[in-house]
Fold:
Amino acid sequence: MFSYKVDDEIKLALPRLSDVDELYALIDADRDDLGRFLPWVDHVQSTDDELPAIQNDLNCFAAGTSLNLFIWYHGRLAGKISLNKIHKMNLEADVGYFLGKSFRGHGIMTRAVQALLDIAFDEYGLHRVYLECAADNLPSNGVAQRCGMRIEGTFHGRLILKDGYHDCNHYAVLAEEWPDIKASLQ
Structure:
């Protein structure tokens, strides 16, 4: 498995088709909570729905258009994190992620996002990374803030979720800012 060690507890790894059962179980166990902020969850009804998604993730990695990684915590699949829509012209990408409910509260996602920022700036040479989340998704807003990302604004009624439109907070960090921010987080 191609992986990136975050620390002694966490590693990020390219998805494997053989992980589909574990990924589906993670999503299915937390369907209601994940589905509140991630509309795609309702479309995942079996492992057959996830296999094309994993293959697409691998194809996008090969094409350099996105980087989708599984989050492994103590050897167990805990979630997924990604650099979505890598814009080669502007050298920017947005961060997406989810974490299974039994893995929350351990700082996993904050550490995973920090590692992904390292990858984005050091390996991909990106200039800017941004994160968008529903204004009322307090855990995701907290991750962005703990990673030192700057809030650039709130877009009113931008996200359509199960229960209607939600305001969307937009956070970002620049490559030249990241070393100082990272040093202040340690």
